[in-house]
């Protein structure tokens, strides 16, 4: 009887409020109902595509905890930090919190790791006067002595003082009970050791980018990447553009994938649409990589050479260049059809710059041949997508050469199943 009463309370007020008195008994059924939440944030200046890489590190941690038999770990949900005020995106005065569902197929992500959106966390987690209190915050930082001592072993150490102040993804209605600084070197998956030491039901990892990949490019990495499918709406926008402007569709291009990423099979059968696609990273890259960045004239020459070799007349350009620069490049490529995706006002007001970037990435992923920008994470995400679609790797891992004809060695990260 007592148990039922508790159970009712458990349903109406949220269960975890009672968790402490309730679940230390060996009532495993109850234990399963109680969630723990793992939140994370990334260094503010990091761009969209590096953030996706950090997501992969954390989702692999969440995936492994989920599959663990340890009840302290397998109840964790990973809370997805909304997209807001990224440095490269057009600045908005009041932050807008774009949920992951706008960009990604959440059902697909959830087949890999137990993820939830931030707004779902706000709905599920107990709050007091519309304020949420997180139990423990860990701000990761690099070991200061790492390079001096040459000690690159995995280790973690709680410190009293943080090098930096805290921010909670711009939310003013989130506070925390306990703050720790954690000098950290090792893969994100090692963080689970920390979670075994605490009964906190919500934990925030700040500067999650300090944690590393366990096996970059390994099988689990690629599972995480394959689960990270783009949202149907954005895929549809890209498909419409491919059909109308590039004579490209999945049937003809041999890029049809099964509905569920878990059913994907290895193989390199993709042909791709009859166009060359390029990703030309400009802006900050021009400033910081002066020698490596080709002039537009050189870009046009390199594009022209490949178009002649492929016997194509169409190039799709994905770039963060200014309109002026783009027009300049187009005029240098007058002989050819130069295509680019120009989002409508309505599209931009909903999906922002991130949506346009993803449409660009999808269109580049489906081209017969691709040339990217050396060391741009934007380019890496396209290369990965082409690996998943099953292109011959020689059509994917190509980067622009510099003006002097110096061509960078493109790292080849082949898919592993
Ligand atoms: N639409 C569009 N946007 C782009 C393109 N290249 C860069 N961007 C924008 O510039 C931002 C910065 O590029 P990211 O690759 O995300 O930034 P990053 O994670 O710092 O990675 P790097 O490219 O390595 O700097 C992207 O998020 C986009 O908003 C492009 O080809 N098309
Ligand atoms: C906290 O603020 C955000 C942004 O304004 C809002 O979406 C969220 O619902 C708020 N959380 C609570 C518990 O009121
Ligand atoms: C867990 O707690 C024990 C005992 O306090 C401590 O020795 C150990 O270093 C802690 N481990 C982690 C990963 O924090
Ligand atoms: C356009 O190209 C010309 C010739 O390469 C160059 O001199 C000029 O500065 C370029 N303008 C822009 C806006 O890039």
UniProtKB/TrEMBL annotation:
It holds the Pfam family O-FucT. Pathway: Protein modification; protein glycosylation. One of its GO terms (biological process) is fucose metabolic process. The keyword Lipoprotein does not apply. One of its GO terms (molecular function) is peptide-O-fucosyltransferase activity. It is found in: Endoplasmic reticulum; Golgi apparatus. Coiled coil: none annotated. Residues 1-19 form the signal peptide. It catalyses: L-threonyl-[protein] + GDP-beta-L-fucose = 3-O-(alpha-L-fucosyl)-L-threonyl-[protein] + GDP + H(+); L-seryl-[protein] + GDP-beta-L-fucose = 3-O-(alpha-L-fucosyl)-L-seryl-[protein] + GDP + H(+). The keyword Nucleotide-binding does not apply. GO terms for cellular component: endoplasmic reticulum; Golgi apparatus. Keywords: Carbohydrate metabolism, Disulfide bond, Endoplasmic reticulum, Fucose metabolism, Glycoprotein, Glycosyltransferase, Golgi apparatus, Signal, Transferase. Its EC number is 2.4.1.221. Belongs to the glycosyltransferase 68 family. This is GDP-fucose protein O-fucosyltransferase 2.
């Amino acid at each position: 009887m007592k148990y039922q009463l508790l159970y009712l309370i458990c349903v109406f007020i949220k269960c975890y409020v009672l968790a402490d008195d309730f679940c230390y008994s060996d009532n495993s059924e109850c234990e399963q109902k109680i969630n723990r939440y793992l939140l994370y944030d990334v260094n503010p200046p990091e761009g969209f595509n590096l953030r996706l890489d950090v997501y992969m590190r954390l989702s692999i941690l969440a995936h492994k905890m989920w599959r663990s038999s340890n009840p302290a770990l397998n109840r964790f949900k990973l809370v997805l930090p909304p997209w807001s005020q990224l440095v490269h995106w057009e600045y908005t005065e009041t932050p807008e919190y774009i949920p992951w569902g706008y960009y990604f197929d959440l059902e697909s992500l959830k087949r890999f790791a137990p993820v939830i959106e931030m707004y779902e966390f706000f709905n599920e987690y107990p709050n007091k006067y519309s304020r949420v209190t997180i139990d423990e915050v860990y701000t990761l930082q690099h070991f200061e002595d790492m390079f001096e001592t040459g000690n690159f072993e995995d280790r973690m150490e709680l410190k009293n003082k943080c090098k930096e102040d805290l921010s909670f993804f711009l939310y003013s209605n989130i506070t925390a009970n306990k703050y720790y600084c954690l000098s950290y070197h090792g893969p994100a998956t090692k963080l689970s050791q920390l979670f075994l030491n605490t009964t906190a039901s919500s934990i925030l990892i700040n500067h999650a980018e300090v944690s590393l990949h366990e096996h970059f490019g390994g099988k689990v990495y690629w599972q995480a990447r394959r689960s990270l499918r783009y949202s149907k709406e954005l895929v549809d926008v890209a498909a419409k553009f491919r059909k109308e402007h590039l004579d490209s569709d999945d049937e003809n291009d041999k890029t049809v994938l099964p509905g569920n990423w878990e059913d994907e099979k290895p193989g390199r059968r993709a042909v791709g649409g009859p166009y060359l696609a390029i990703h030309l990273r400009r802006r900050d890259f021009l400033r910081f990589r002066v020698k490596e960045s080709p002039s537009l004239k050189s870009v046009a020459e390199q594009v022209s050479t490949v178009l002649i070799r492929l016997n194509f007349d169409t190039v799709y350009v994905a770039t963060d260049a200014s309109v002026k620069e783009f027009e300049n490049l187009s005029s240098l490529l007058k002989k050819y059809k130069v295509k680019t995706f120009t989002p409508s006002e309505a599209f931009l007001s909903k999906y922002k710059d991130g949506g346009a970037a993803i449409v660009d990435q999808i269109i580049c992923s489906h081209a017969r041949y691709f040339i990217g920008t050396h060391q741009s994470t934007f380019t890496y995400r396209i290369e990965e997508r082409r690996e998943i679609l099953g292109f011959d790797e020689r059509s994917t891992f190509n980067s622009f050469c510099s003006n002097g004809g110096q061509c960078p060695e493109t790292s080849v990260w082949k898919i592993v199943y």
